[in-house]
Design goal:
By secondary structure, this protein is mainly alpha-helical. The protein has a domain at 278-492. It contains 19 helices and two strands. It has helices spanning 5-22, 28-52, 82-101, 109-128, 132-152, 159-186, 194-197, 205-222, 232-238, 241-266, 268-294, 299-319, 327-355, 370-384, 390-403, 409-435, 437-442, 448-466, 469-491; strands at residues 61-69, 74-80. A two-stranded antiparallel ribbon has the order 1-2. The longest helix has 29 residues, at 327-355. The protein is globular, with a radius of gyration of 21 Å.
Amino acid sequence: MTEHLLSINLLIALIGLLGIALTKREKGNLIKTIAAIVTGLQFWTIVEILFNFNPMDTALQFSERINWIPAFRIDYYLGVDGINLVFLIVTSLLIFLSVIISWNKREPLKEYFILLMILDIGLNGIFIAINLFLFLIFLGVTFFAIYLIIGFSNIRGSVNSVNRFGIPFLISYIFILLGVLLLYKSNNLHTLNLTELTVGNAISHSKQMVISIILLIGFAILIPLFPFHSWLIPLIKNGPKEVSLLILGIVTKVGLYGLVRIIAPVMPFATNSLTLALGIWGLVNIIYGAICALGSDDSNQILGYFTLQQLGFFLIGFATLGENSNISIAVTGLSGSLLIVISHSCLATLLLIIFKNIRAENQNVARPSLPNIAIVTLTLLAGIGMPGFLDFFARFLILLSAFQTQRLLILAIISLLGIFLNFAIYLKLFKKLVFSQQTRDSAKRLDSNEVFASVSLLIVLILCGIFPSFLLNIIQPGITRLLEMFSTAIAL
């Protein structure tokens, strides 16, 4: 049974899609119930994979491989290791919580949940596809679904949000498609299976550099990184919280996944040459995001710039890949980067839940009843990076590795400024959200579904922050294997 869990995960979403499509529009509660059961079962499959996962086995686990199009060496090839398991956990959790948060959603209800199931298939498929042809298919499915979700949720007629997202995403897809096509044409194995492309130098050094830059642009737009972030803030501002949750919490992580899963292992020479530039790029995002957030009073802008800052730390951790002389440093840095993925997804969702209760006319947030005060306070403490929360440990690992790397030492020192600015931002938010008389008088309370989702995410942040070794035991063997292959390829 366990050897087919990945396909079962996709099949569950497909059955849910058909079930919702066949349900009459008037039966809104049944539609929501089907969506909740389907996403709950998918979360169970990922938990089952997690508890049956062997951290000491660095090879792909739960793999499924079927010759699909033999003429072009295209396989139906799925598998997980410690790296993509992180992304699967985040995806399954947030999609389930998005259903809970969307429980009071009004029309178009049926269309929304149909598209959510399609998006579910696309995102899960992206993170388990070992063949890049499959990756492109699932990425296209994701683009199609999220674009239509934004359109159907566009109640206020903010067409600009749809276009501002759709056009950058299309450009991103074109760059990624071009990069994958060049990968297929350039590698001497004529394959798109990642397990084969990561063995030795399948692509010449000069071609690696060209292809990696093309792919990097595509993923940078999707993440998004400065200066490709212009679509993010309008989307947060105009889109409903369940839509913004899916994009901020999951879709943006596709770009990060592309860096770790495709660019680094397949093109090690180019990655090694670009690590310092990526570290500088990360620092720019940290400082720029912090300064812009500090200078803004708009909660949507603050959340957008917070995303830039967090993902900037990911790049600094990723940049430690260039430290080939000491693999342990790179293991530490990349571990921190993957923990940032979980931390940012949870924090961004929590902040969305809080900020989306703002009344446009007065910028007030969650009336400070006891549960609301607790949620707001813990969220802000987690965002500051207080010890005991996952964000603190993730950034600690990243900075620890960067401080041990001569090339990144200056970047690590300057990035501390970003942390201090982040602290100032959250103090400002805390004063506004908790102590403002205007907030107490007229803000909207969090409903029971929002409280459930918030508490669930806070539990994740606290448990992972206090007991990070559970995640590290899963992540680090896969990272170590990646880095060993990376160092070997560089030495060739």
